[in-house]
Write a structure and sequence with these properties.
The complex is a heterodimer of chains A (113) and B (112).
Chain A lengths: L3 E4 L2 E5 L4 E7 L5 E7 L6 E6 L5 E4 L2 E5 L5 E6 L8 E8 L9 E2 L3 E6 L1
Parallel strand pairs in A: 2-11
Antiparallel strand pairs in A: 1-3, 3-8, 4-5, 4-9, 6-7, 7-8, 9-10, 9-11
Chain B lengths: L3 E4 L2 E4 L5 E7 L5 E7 L5 E9 L2 E4 L6 E3 L9 E3 L8 E8 L7 E2 L3 E5 L1
Parallel strand pairs in B: 2-11
Antiparallel strand pairs in B: 1-3, 3-8, 4-5, 4-9, 5-6, 7-8, 9-10, 9-11
Classes of the chains: A mainly beta (113), B mainly beta (112).
């Protein structure tokens, strides 16, 4: 099956620092999604990317859909304590029967105030 | 809007017992999914459904069963619970293929 490699596995940063994480795939995707999971909650969609090369922002978050369609990255600028959580990338092919999301293993972000 | 509602939030089950994890959504989504999340392992798909009456296996279906008699409900059944099924279970739904998922807040299950 499709594999997603998400890195880094964990990050410990100081409040105010910028953060970058990425996902790479062994195969191409039509859609890349980034989710955040707060402790004790389900993942919540942050950003959805539908086109190769697309760069999309949501407040302090910026994500890009790689031009090869095999990778994506997420940047968080000027981190704050509430950014703490697990960030997941997910890839999806919306054509045919293979439309299910494939998730990365997550990046655990800790922000020290 | 309730979104995706899962019950119970927590449960302790004895080995060999059975139970049903409930999931309901009020967004009229056709697609529904069950995932399990284990520490450091991300989310693994157990079963999914593309509409009422249609279900299919995901990546890790062994030990589980599902049914989809209505658009709103997608219960997950554990027949003979084993310690390996200790996990956090998430139900999710999506409007159609190509759209992101809306997740419930999860059920933390411990099998002892």
């Amino acid at each position: 099956g499709q594999q997603l490699n998400q890195s880094p596995q964990s990050m410990f940063i100081q409040e105010g620092e910028d953060v970058s994480m990425n996902c790479t795939s062994s195969s191409i995707f039509n859609t890349w999604l980034w989710y955040k999971q707060d402790p004790g909650e389900g993942p919540v969609l942050l950003i959805a990317l539908y086109k190769a090369g697309e760069l999309t922002s949501n407040g302090r978050l910026t994500a890009q859909f790689g031009i090869t369609r095999k990778d994506s990255f997420l940047n968080i600028s000027a981190s704050i304590p509430s950014d703490v959580g697990i960030y997941f990338c997910a890839g999806q092919n919306s054509g045919g029967s293979n439309y299910k999301l494939t998730f990365g293993k997550g990046t655990l972000l800790t922000v020290n105030p | 809007n309730a979104g995706v509602t899962q019950t119970p939030k927590f449960h302790i089950l004895k080995i060999g017992q059975s139970m049903t994890l409930q999931c309901t959504q009020d967004m009229n989504h056709n697609y529904m999914y069950w995932y399990r999340q284990d520490p450091g392992m991300g989310l693994k798909l157990i079963y999914y459904s593309v509409g009422a009456g249609i279900t299919d296996k995901g990546e890790v279906p062994n030990g589980y069963n599902v049914s989809r008699s209505t658009t709103e409900d997608f219960p997950l059944r554990l027949e003979l619970a084993a310690p390996s099924q200790t996990s956090v279970y998430f139900c999710a739904s999506s409007r159609d293929r190509g759209y992101g998922y809306t997740f419930g807040s999860g059920t933390r299950l411990t099998v002892v």
